[in-house]
Amino acid sequence: MSLPGVSAFSADVLKVPPGNRNAEQPPIPGASYKRTKEGRTTFDDKYDKVRDLLKSDRALISKIESTASRYGIEPIHIIGAIVGEHTYNVDAYDRLQSYYIKAASYAGNSFRFGYDGQSVDQFVSRPEFSECAGKDDSYSLWTCRERVWETDFRGKTVGGKSYPNNRFSAVFFQPFFAGQTFGLGQINPLTALKLTDLVHQKSGYERLDENKAGDVYKAIMDPDQSLAYIAAAIRKSIDEYRSVAGMDISGNPGITATLYNLGNSPARAAALAAKNRGRATPEWPEENYYGWLVNEKLADLKSLL
To answer: Smallest Cα–Cα separation from 163: which of 116, 205, 128, 207?
Structure first.
C-alpha cells in the first residue's frame, strides 16, 4: 500500500508500532556529555532525579494529566518530554517551587530578542519576509519566517551584511549565555511564539509578543504555562505526522519525544512521506537517543501516572 502524498490527508492512516526501532540507543551528542560531566553527575543520576521529582509531586502530575486532556494527548507524552530534557540537557531542580521562582525573576525585564543591534521585529519587516505577511496564525507565521531565514539569510551576506550560519532561534532568540535554562520543558522562545495562538485557544493564556521578551521567558519558565506549551508542541507534531506523512505517532512516546527534542516536525514529516511514497512496505519514523530512553523507560514512567 502506498502512503499519501506530502500535502494529502487520508483516512487510511498507518499506526506507528510501539517501542524502539533501534536495538541499541543511538549516539548521544557530545554537548550532552559535556554538560553532564561539568555538573559532576551522570545520565542515570539525572534521570533518577527528574523521575523522583515527578513521583514526589502529585500536584504536578495532576496538572500534567489535566493539560494533556485539554490538548487531546496522553500524559505520558508530556512526561517523556520533561524527562528527556532533564536527563540530557539540564539538571532538575529538587522542588517545583524553584521553577516558579526562576520564572518570576524574568517578568518585566528589559532585554529583547535581536541580533547585532537590530530587533527581530525590525528584521522580519524586511521585504524578504513579505511572503509571510498573509499568515493568519502564529504557527504558520513564525514557521514561514524561520524558513525565509534558512533560505535567504543563514550563512549568507545580504545587502553587505553577513549573517551567522546558525538556526534562526539561536541567532535572534537567545539573549543569554549558552545553556540558559528554560523551565520544565526547556522550550525555545521561537517555539513558544509559534505555539502562542494554540496555547491561547486551548489554555487561555495571553498571546506572546516578540517585543516583550521578558513575558516570553516567564511563560516558558512558569511550570503551569510551560506544560501548555509542551502539550501544544506534541499536539502539533502528532497532527503533522498524521496529515503530512499519513502516520499516527500518538501511541509511541519515544517518537513524540524525539520530535520534541529535534523540532521542525513539518519538514521531518514531509521527508518521511517523500521517502515512503510508492513503497509497498512503509519505513517507520525512528527515535533518536532522547526518544529511545523514553521508550526504554516507558513502564517506569507510566507508573508515575
So the answer is: 116
**Three-class SS state of 248:** strand
> CA 130, CA 116: separation in Å to the nearest integer?
22
Coil vs helix vs strand at 69:
helix
Q: For the chain of 305 residues, list the mean pLDDT of each consecutive stretch of 10.
A: 38 90 95 87 93 93 97 98 91 73 68 90 96 94 96 95 93 67 82 97 96 88 92 97 97 97 92 93 96 98 96
Calculate the CA 139 to chain-centre distance: 13
- Euclidean distance between CA atoms 34 and 30, whole angstroms: 6
Q: Which residue has the cell 518521511?
A: 272
Q: Based on the number of CB atoms within 10 Å of its own CB, is 27 exposed (0-12), middle (13-18) or buried (19 or more)?
A: exposed
Measure the CA–CA gap between 43 and 39, rounded to whole angstroms: 11
Is 78 within 8 Å of 230 (Cβ atoms)? yes
What cell does 58 get? 502529585
Instruction: Name the pTM for this structure.
Output: 0.90
Estimate to the nearest angstrom the gap between the alpha carbon of 104 and the chain centroid: 22
